[in-house]
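>> received
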Amino acid sequence: LLQLHGFPLLWALNHLSDFVVDTGERSDYRGSSGEPQQPHDAEEAEKSPSKSEHLKKHLQRSTGKRIHCCFDCGKRFTSSAGIKIHQRIHTGEKPFSCTQCGKRFTTSGSLTLHQRTHTGEKPYSCGQCGKSFGQSSDLTVHQRIHTGQKPYSCDQCGKSFVQSGQLTLHQRTHTGEKPYSCDQCGKSFGRSCHLTQHQRIHTGEKSYSCDQCGKSFGQSGHYLTIHQRTHTGEKPYGCDQCGKSFNQLNSLMVHQRTHTGEKAFKCDQCGKSFGTSGCLTTHQRTHTGEKPYSCDQCGKSFTTSSQLTLHQRTHTGEKPYSCDQCGKGFTTSSQLTLHQRRHTGQNPYSCTQCGKRYSDKKSLTKHQKIHGGKNPGSEMEEVYLCDLTKSN
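>> returned
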């Protein structure tokens, strides 16, 4: 016998009216109000579907017809099972629970993904490097590292991204959108993680602490890593033009502008230009007189947080920078640098008129008065100490 998807063809044609749904008809599924839904026995029918139901569902999928409508939001679905799962969004029902931690989920698939956080199972592995993942979507994103694929591009500047979430964050740099706001002070942020970091200013929470000196940080472990370099002396970022090294990338980037002369940030009051936006902000306070950082012990106020930090050490006596040769401690890294030159004999500041060399700029300036002027060859570009580029 000729068959159509497992059904005798003649029988299927005779019962075609049972399977084809008129375009004017719609199965009505009531919303989260709890009123009965139609068909009344839809749930029972799904448990033991007849052949006609199988064929009906197949025809719906093949035509893409969405006959099940949610009365809460109007969204439509091709199957009753699909609308049942969807309506849990409105009802809040989460029938699937984790036996280990009790967390509940809307679908069994979500529960399965969650359970892998307990078991450590990572069934999806990369064929190129062997790295494994708990979700197929994570593997897809990872594989773009190998292929170089960046399918999400900004329609304003053309920049491309690996993930749609990265594009969304980037687009906020154009729109200025900051959807995350602090409920205590009203300050807004483009990312939720930045809001979380900011809120620690209000709560005083400092989750990251140094195991050598005990200093704590409210923001990510990145700031702790930078701080720990003050103990180890590590400066992994080196300038390819003069060889000077820095303990963080931002400091290197600012330094490199002393070679290129780039000063992209200009003061609209006096016209002075700066290498970073943070340095411009600090400079503008010389016009406004703003000193937003105050000492909670003596009340003295400062223009930058780094100045406040240095001042607070006069109260605490803290000297976090120590010489690895003699053990002497210092309040600032610049004081330590000057001290270390006594051990090394380094004198980087030289007078172009007589050739005499000095370990610090202050001594050279004092010497230049003998010649009755300033030594133009010894000038080093002055950069404002700002919170973004200075590590105390």
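>> Residues 124-175 form a domain with the Double Stranded RNA Binding Domain fold (CATH 3.30.160.60).
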